[in-house]
DNA sequence: CTGGGCTTTTGACAAATGTCACCCGGTCGG
DNA sequence: CCGACCGGGTGACATTTGTCAAAAGCCCAG
């Protein structure tokens, strides 16, 4: 019997996925949590074989949680298959990655594969991640753009990053150019689409 | 036995919710679809007692689907409880509205209530919708802002709406002011948060 | 019909954003 | 060592965006 811990912020979805996994005779859901920052304690208490993590969660996002527990068998389950997410998950040693629009059997299959020490990647997603490639932005450009995405103005970004306004404008301009965007808003959308910020 | 039709674009979630509803002895899921524009045909074919609709779907969004079938018992199920969504759903004659982060039993309860001719509103959400009130933007302001949200520049918006650039700037400025934002980006975020664009 | 209150429209002006050419300091190959 | 290259940082300048005061049209109550 494979013992599973389930973390997802949407209560109803969490219950629904638990019900789905419970249909499998060899899987049992031993605990459920709704916040990223509660996962560590729950893992310590219940010692699950596999942890299924949503990425979008309050407290701490699923990728950060995965990074904080190397060695733990983890399957990432996420709404949208952003190529950058997959890349980050791989870097954190995650061996299973399933988008929420995958067929229902894929999740159970992924849990079994990961429990057995193997890898499971959604084929669709793996392909698009290959296409997408690396994030073309430098660290500072990404810093500036992600603050802009939260609605900050140039002067606020400058204060946050301890830079002059001119520098910030320059980073944003570079980001806009590299992303093939025409202004800040389209640049933000493009970067979010790819999971880069 | 209450016959339910389920529409949600995320395959895995759809299966999970179906599994959850099937646990209830008096409910049965007679069909599932993954696109808004396939709902009408499926309803005609299967004649379900209640239709459970996600809002975010390709093809046609859940609210538009609900508007197109007055009289049909509908429960709206959505990821995020935007007050504007609830308002639009009520206007379309929807009698059940459940956010995805509600407790798992709420969905089955909502389906039963709606099937019996009653209403079911998530209490949390009803409260925040009361707080939020009507969208303060005029039609043209909303037009301009939603184009801006898709990344259009002032001049592009002006062409789309057949206006001069000055007028468009004025609309965006009014929207920014009414929403208590400090620039276009925060205004877009605020309006999306409330489900107004 | 008359006037008040609303949206829509406008252009002039001020402020923020985007672009450019450039400097500085590592570091990598020859 | 030297130069090419890359990322970080900067200010001056052009363009876009945001604000303001005002005018025209529309609808409704009086």
UniProtKB/TrEMBL annotation, chains A, B:
<dbReference type="InterPro" id="IPR011006">
    <property type="entry name" value="CheY-like_superfamily"/>
</dbReference>
<dbReference type="GO" id="GO:0006355">
    <property type="term" value="P:regulation of DNA-templated transcription"/>
</dbReference>
<dbReference type="InterPro" id="IPR039420">
    <property type="entry name" value="WalR-like"/>
</dbReference>
<feature type="modified residue" description="4-aspartylphosphate">
    <location>
        <position position="54"/>
    </location>
</feature>
<feature type="domain" description="HTH luxR-type">
    <location>
        <begin position="130"/>
        <end position="195"/>
    </location>
</feature>
<dbReference type="GO" id="GO:0003677">
    <property type="term" value="F:DNA binding"/>
</dbReference>
<dbReference type="InterPro" id="IPR016032">
    <property type="entry name" value="Sig_transdc_resp-reg_C-effctor"/>
</dbReference>
<dbReference type="Pfam" id="PF00196">
    <property type="entry name" value="GerE"/>
</dbReference>
<dbReference type="InterPro" id="IPR001789">
    <property type="entry name" value="Sig_transdc_resp-reg_receiver"/>
</dbReference>
<feature type="domain" description="Response regulatory">
    <location>
        <begin position="3"/>
        <end position="115"/>
    </location>
</feature>
<dbReference type="InterPro" id="IPR000792">
    <property type="entry name" value="Tscrpt_reg_LuxR_C"/>
</dbReference>
<protein>
    <submittedName>
        <fullName>DNA-binding response regulator</fullName>
    </submittedName>
</protein>
<dbReference type="GO" id="GO:0000160">
    <property type="term" value="P:phosphorelay signal transduction system"/>
</dbReference>
<dbReference type="Pfam" id="PF00072">
    <property type="entry name" value="Response_reg"/>
</dbReference>
<keyword id="KW-0238">DNA-binding</keyword>
<keyword id="KW-0597">Phosphoprotein</keyword>
